[in-house]
Amino acid sequence: MSTLNNANLQLNNITVNSDKKKILADFSVTFPVGQITTIIGASGVGKTTLLNVVAGLRDFASGTMTLNGQPFIPKEHVMALVPQDYGLLPWETATQAVINALKITKQPINQTVITQLFEKLSIMDLKTKYPHEMSGGQQQRVSLARGFAVAADVLLMDEPFSALDTNTREQIQTLFMDTWQMKPGTTLFITHDIQEAILLGQQILVLTPTGAEMITHPEQEADLVARLKAVIGNG
Ligand SMILES: Nc1ncnc2c1ncn2[C@@H]1O[C@H](COP(=O)(O)OP(=O)(O)OP(=O)(O)O)[C@@H](O)[C@H]1O
Fold it and tell me: What ipTM is given for this predicted complex?
């Protein structure tokens, strides 16, 4: 993916329908390439659907996606997805999950780098374990190892730290920033945690049932926490 100044990934008038309703209606947003956008909004407002559209996992009824004005075709980019349900395959051990993700995305397989990542995520003891042998928090850390191992152009994270305790969460936020800085992919990061959205996002996309707002300089905005609390509470 290009890292030109002002490069952007745009969703233009996207509509996603389910059987019963419109999930996204005529939805447009611009994401800066090579930056982290955190996404916040009430439960059910369409955050995961938006991520799945960008991942190419969700069809849309109308609209377009463009990268610097050209059609954006998800499968042509190196993508990493850390889904809400962790997305581990029952037949893959933790090590196999990471190695297969690297193979699929045609990335180099460096055992030393993988081991360092497992150490930093405190999952060395899970290397040969299958998902059914892990707790939710352990599965989430394996999913993060898989996401971080791939030097992605587009990194999509759906409440990626939700199953972690506070201390572990803070450590892994730091690991995330360190990893991301080595390869600053275009990152969409859904969270319900307002402090996390402000801490990690270069901008914050606030989704509401009636639309969306991009907060481009979160650090400069007074009363932002109160405003975001109201959005999540009222959704
Ligand atoms: N495949 C589907 N079929 C029918 N309805 C769906 C489908 N996927 C999502 N929805 C509905 O679309 C709406 C948006 O769902 P989505 O998962 O995108 O919301 P969200 O903002 O990520 O929610 P949460 O914060 O609870 O994860 C919800 O009302 C959900 O029930």
Answer: 0.93
- Which of 112-116, 208-212, 230-234 is least confident? 230-234
Whether ligand 1 lies within 6 angstroms of the CB of 181 is answered as no
Domain that holds residue 32: 1-77+154-163+186-235
- Measured in angstroms, how far is the CA atom of residue 131 from the centroid of ligand 1? 25
Split into its structural domains, the chain has a count of 1
Instruction: Tell which atom from ligand 1 comes closest to the C-alpha of 41.
Output: 21
50 C-alpha to ligand 1 centroid (Å): 10
Q: Distance (Å, rounded) from C-alpha 230 to C-alpha 154?
A: 30
| Per-residue pLDDT tens digits for 71-97 | 999 999 999 999 999 999 999 999 999
Residue with CA closest to ligand 1 atom 1:
18
Q: Is residue 125 part of a domain?
A: no
Q: Which CATH number belongs to the domain containing residue 224 in this structure? A: 3.40.50.300
Domain assignment present for 178: no
Predicted TM-score of the model (pTM): 0.94
